[in-house]
Amino acid sequence: MWVVTIFNNVHDIRIFEYNNKEAATAKLSGLSNAILSYTK
Questions:
Q1: Residue 1's pLDDT is what?
Q2: Closest by alpha carbon to 20, among 38, 32, 2?
Q3: What tens digit of pLDDT does each residue of 1-36 get?
Q4: β partners of residue 13
Q5: H-run or E-run covering 21
Q6: Quick check: pTM over 0.90?
Q7: Which of 4, 5, 8, 10 is the most buried (most CB within 10 A)?
Q8: Contact assessment for residue 15 and residue 5, using Cβ atoms and an 8 Å cutoff
Q9: What are residue 25's DSSP bridge partners?
Q10: What is the per-residue pLDDT for 13?
C-alpha cells in the first residue's frame, strides 16, 4: 500500500492510502509539503 502524508500544519496532517504507485504520485504532484511512503 502506498501512503501519501500531507503536512498542512502541526495540527492538520492528512493521510491518503493508495493501492498503486501511479495514483499516489499523481496526488503528490504540485505539493511541497507531502511525503510518499510504502507499507506492506
A1: 98
A2: 2
A3: 999 999 999 999 999 999 999 999 999 999 999 999
A4: 7
A5: helix 21-28
A6: no
A7: 4
A8: yes
A9: none
A10: 98
The reported pLDDT for the residue numbered 7 is 98
- Hey, what amino acid is at 1? M
Among the listed residues 28, 9, 10, 7, the one whose alpha carbon sits nearest the alpha carbon of residue 18? 28
Domain ranges for the chain? 2-38
Q: Which residues pair with 15 in a beta bridge?
A: 5
Task: Tell me the C-alpha distance between 2 and 20, whole Å.
Answer: 7
In SS3 terms, 22-34 reads as HHHHHHHCCCCCE
Return left, alpha or beta for 17; rule: phi > 0 is left, psi -120 to 50 is alpha, else beta. beta
